[in-house]
Fold each of these.
Amino acid sequence: MSRTVVFVHGAWVTPLCWEHFQRRYEERGYRCVAPAWPGDERPVDQLRADPVPGFGRVGVAEIVHHYEVLVAGLPEPPILVGHSFGGLFVQMLLDRGLGTVGVAIDPAPPRGVLPGPTAFRSSFFVVKTWRAWKKVLTMPFEAFRFGFVNTLPDDEQRALYDRYVVPTPGRVFIQDALGSGTRVDFRRPDRAPLLMIAGGSDNTVEPSMVRRSHDRYSGSPARTDFFEFPDRPHLLIATPGWEQVADHAIEWAESRLGE
């Protein structure tokens, strides 16, 4: 049974967002690896003050390749756990034959799954930015409040923004909106089992979007499960109740290892 977990973070944050999951899984005896996107390797305060030159040109292909090389180089096929864009990237890695099981939490949609109106609103500040595909963008607090932590009190929203949020390349959003480089083979019969988790009050990746992604896998004999946590926001991996999400994810993974 695999005892390695690789965490894949999403946009606007760094591997720090996995701090709770990582500690909990290490207590269960797992070796946890939480790599940063290329360009996101430094502490939050440094990334805010001085993004890496050329970071705006980092897109989906570069990020997924980065994780593909890392995962392929591990001594055993790991459990893959991703959040938001990281959830999309986990699906793409599974599609490439990597990982022993995968968990996609609030995953950004692969090509062929359209965003809902609330999701579009949450990322509209990216879309309206001139030449966003070439720029490193900063998420305004109001966008974070609406899209990531809408179920929390104001003081908790601000504390989470200050702890986690960093600039991100606009390119990944434009590519995902256009379906550029985000294709997965929904019918692939030999990929590892996949669990898709939705937050019932998620404004960034609406639960209906996660269900539609899940439904697209119905033509594959490979195991694909869905679970929704009611009344949870997009950042459900680092907001109250994260323990339930972490435990459900790893217990499901343990039950599917070897399938």
Amino acid sequence: MIPEVYRKLGVRPVIHGSGTTTRYGGSRLSPGGARVDAPGVDRSGEHRRAQRGRGRRDRPHARRGGGVRHGRRQLGLILQAAACIAGDDPAKITRLPDTCGLPNEIVIQRAQPLRLRPAYRVAGGALVEIGLARRTQPSSSRTRITEKTAAVAY
């Protein structure tokens, strides 16, 4: 049964056997998380079509200063990077994204999608690439992790 919100956006339901796949909506939220998020997030569907539909629906509100929608994945990456760089130190947290003098390097596999990288930079991270375009050997990271390393993205 497709939720009404997806029907209004023109999203077709999807049944797939590949496990968690962001293209089809990512992971299901916990019941508590689903209650505070948009209706319909507890079902799988065509994620891109839902985003386009939400964009059409929200465009008039955004022009009036109603805000901008961000993907949960990008926001999660920003928060993860910020937490790794600043920890729980209030002085460091208030400085972000200014990370001058802080360990701010995030080691990332060259094969990781380019669209994820800006999220780490928004938090003040400096990316250090390892590996090749299609694969990374475990030994690739050993020489790239230094005292300036805040995190390893995987």
Amino acid sequence: MSRRYEKGNYVYYEWIAEGVTSFRPEENSPGLAYFLPQVQIYVKSFKTSHSTRSVLADLNDLYRWYGTFVKDLDQNNSPEAGFTW
């Protein structure tokens, strides 16, 4: 069963599963995420009162986002790591 409803400026989606038996993994089996349903959400952009902000609309946005993870790395040579920049 699912439903969609609005509250204020937000839209909510809700899913309910009924009559589902509990999951019991076998010994040495993969983790729960391998078996259980998952929802993947990709946000291309969102609107504010002043503009539209791009999040992950294309590869350029993805490149910029990945850049935030490495922009503050120390780029000095590191003998401990076994490599240089």
